[in-house]
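Why PDZ domain-containing protein? Reviewers of the renewal asked for a concrete example.
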Amino acid sequence: MSLFKKKAPKYNPPPVPSAPTEDIDNHHENGLENNNGSQKSQLVFHCQQAQGSPLGLISGFSNVKELYQKIAECYDFPPDDILFCTLNTHKVDMRKLLGGQIGLEDFIFAHRKGRPKEIEIVKTEDALGLTITDNGAGYAFIKRIKEGSIVSRIPHIEVGDHIEKLDGENMVGKRHYEVAKFLKDIPKGTTFTIRLVEPLKSGFGSIGPKSSSARSGKKQNYGSGKETLRFKANGQATIENEHDEKSQAGIEKINGLLESFMGINDTELATQMWDIAEGKTNSMQLAEAIDNSDLQEFGFTDEFIIELWGVITDARSGRLT
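Here is what the prediction returned.
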């Protein structure tokens, strides 16, 4: 991913000693193409550690792993110390996760590893009530806990916790669907141990990006730009316009299907499915397109494909908006 300087928001960092200037003022030119073929260079994003840190300026990346590397270089800690990033909030807000795309005016907050914890769980029901997602760089974590589920009754398990090990087996490097399958395959009545790593707790309190127009009393709307930097599966990063309202409704509904069928939440996967369906006129064409893409590794069932096609046709006709 690269960085774009487009009306960069002014930000007053919390009172923490400043990092060395050579770690922060590190701009690079990037040959990113936008969706009309022209190039934009020196894309720059503002970032900060979610628990509190000086302001950083990040550039020169084309995927999530490279983004983590740049943030780590800026603040001088290992890249694998980052669990995930959120956009425009330092809070552990799963609605604001940074995934395969980022608005050119978005503010990045990096959530680092905090305290590890091991919890013994008796699987008294078929489903634990967890929705799993991952950061695109090898860490799966909890995105949602279903109310009234087994896990919801365990106070030490929280949204944002990274699932590091299950019964001693390392989950680092596995995708969210692999971790979800491992949990699903644990027989009912079994006692197992889950090792979690929670995000480092925030020291910000209510501190967040402050408006550059504070004197006028107007609140600046972060992340409101219409252009988005999107990470492609082939390693490219392109500047594209946002999906329209029908497309966004369809993508959101597809994400709901992924959660229902697989216990995962992945907006980027849902977006990829929506894009693959472009130009397809029936479920057979959609199934063939998925089988001929990198999505075939998921092994989607015929039932899922039929449900998926139903969502796509509903969204195209505007029945979801």
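Residues 1-11, 16-33, 36-41, 204-225 have pLDDT under 50 and may be disordered. This is the kind of structural detail the renewal will allow us to pursue systematically.
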